[in-house]
Amino acid sequence: MTPEEREATRLGAEALDRALVALGRRPAAENPDFRAGEPLAGIFPTLLLEKPGVAPLTLVLAPYLDVWVGPFSEVVLIVIEESSPGEVQGLLEKVLRSAVTCRKGRWATTVTLQIPGEEPWIRLKDLGTRGKASLEGDFLPYVDGARRVGVMAYDDDVAAQIRDQLAGVPEVTERKMFGALAFLVAGNMAVAASGQGGILVRVGDEADELIETTPATRPEMGTRTMKGWVHVDTGDLGPGDLSSWVDRGVAYARSLPPK
Known about the structure:
Layout: H1 3-22, E1 34-40, E2 44-49, E3 57-61, E4 67-70, E5 76-78, H2 85-95, E6 99-104, E7 109-114, E8 122-126, E9 147-148, H3 156-165, E10 172-177, E11 180-185, E12 188-193, E13 199-202, H4 207-213, E14 220-221, E15 224-225, E16 229-232, H5 241-254
Antiparallel strand pairs: 1-2, 2-3, 3-4, 4-5, 5-9, 6-7, 7-8, 10-11, 11-12, 12-13, 13-16, 14-15
């Protein structure tokens, strides 16, 4: 984690605690409904809001004070980019106040968020859960106010090609996150099959140059661009191109301290 990422996480955690206290609740570390979750990709601290008999709500405090909220870790994204601490606290207070309901169908799970007495302001259908998740209104004191992000599925064929390319690379792990399938090397994200199609490649400071000299584009996550990453569409991956991009991502991940 870079110093900037560490500071962002600290500020996000402080804003969450101020929001809980403002709502008359205990800070997260002292709140029985919260517990520490598995860090996102081994990097960003995660808090899980849990209630008996319902799926956990996930909050990830990441750079730029972004907050991810969702029963499947990829349902809702709140962007608090370049906001003041007061604005962050205000938004988190909204996040911690509205109701979440979940209806399970045979082929999909529909998640609805709404302020009590008002029409739902967000309605998401997750086909990947096959109706296995279970969210109920028990989250009423805790959730409201987010920005919808469509959940898309990554291309299985592209993921398989990346997996084959990494077959001989040691310390490779896979993790589904935010509609993508990420491949980590020694705990550091290297490349991913993107939920928007094509691939995401972690290249660090080379990103700007590659965007100017190759078909790669600057990826976006919600309203924020992903610094140090490039996106390459499937149609721009000619023979041998995927292998070259995967090698770039692996090389960058190897340049970072293992986690």
